[in-house]
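tokens incoming
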């Protein structure tokens, strides 16, 4: 145990991990604010965080959130909602056992059995919709600058 972050009690675990090639990596210091965890549980919790890290990596590099900070707050808010909705839908399609979804994954003939993964589904959809000029679409302007409707006159 140690005190950290303005005197807060934390569990401290030093660990060395092996690479996939079997070589020892440099030692890591892991901190947990849950002091009831054993050292093994702290290491396991650290390993579980990689599923979240890969999601952030995909959102940044594949879904365009890397440059989203340059936008206004309202535009960023809308972009994040649309992006996460698209990300979530593609993740869910990966669990759907459907022939149409499997066909989206047939773009990489060198892959054995064409596995149905969210990444392969995304690539298949990109091949279908790559020619659609979304950024030039009037609907994008409507999303960025909403039109105020007077329902009494329509």
């Amino acid at each position: 145990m140690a005190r950290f972050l303005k005197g807060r009690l934390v569990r401290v675990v030093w660990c060395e991990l092996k690479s996939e090639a079997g070589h020892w990596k440099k030692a890591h210091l892991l901190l947990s604010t849950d002091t009831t965890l054993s050292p093994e549980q702290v290491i396991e919790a650290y390993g579980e965080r990689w599923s979240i890290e890969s999601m952030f990596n995909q959102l940044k590099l594949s879904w365009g959130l890397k440059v989203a900070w340059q936008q206004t707050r309202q535009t960023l808010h809308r972009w994040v909602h649309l992006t996460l909705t698209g990300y979530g839908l593609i993740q869910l399609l990966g669990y759907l056992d459907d022939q149409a979804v499997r066909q989206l994954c047939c773009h990489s003939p060198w892959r054995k059995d064409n596995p149905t993964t969210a990444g392969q589904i995304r690539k298949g959809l990109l091949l279908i919709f790559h020619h659609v000029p979304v950024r030039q679409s009037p609907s994008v302007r409507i999303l960025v600058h909403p039109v105020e409707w007077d329902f009494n006159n329509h």
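note: DSSP finds six helices and three strands in the chain.
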